[in-house]
Amino acid sequence: MTPEESGQAINQIGSAMGANLKRTLEYGDALNFVSDNLATTAPKLTDFSMRTVGLTRQLKLSAEELTTYGGVMLDAGVAPDVAATSVLAMTRSLAAG
After folding, report:
1. Distance between CA atoms of residues 54 and 75, nearest Å
2. Which of 45, 66, 70, 91 falls 20 to 30 Å from 34 in CA-CA distance?
3. pTM for the complete prediction?
4. What distances in angstroms separate CA 30 from CA 14, 27, 45, 97, one per listed residue?
5. HSE, side-chain direction, 13 A CA sphere, residue 71
6. What are the pLDDT digits (tens) for 44-62?
7. 62 in helix, strand or coil?
């Protein structure tokens, strides 16, 4: 992932969160922290985040918490799309009661 692609992805995630620039940069820092401290990469974590950031309100989690959850799944070897799909399925199950 090039710096330009990374910046564009973080900007899209920030927009989806309804975040201002400061909040978006804080999220980018958190994403980097998670990718640096788990056996995953920033591109995989960004992929997961782009797919799930809209679920933060439904799950009552911060974007950082959801990203950390995704990071743990990616660390365990789950692919970003599979991890995102499992979070979506969990959200649907919780909403259904």
Report:
1. 22
2. 91
3. 0.88
4. 13, 5, 11, 31
5. 20
6. 999 999 999 888 888 888 8
7. coil
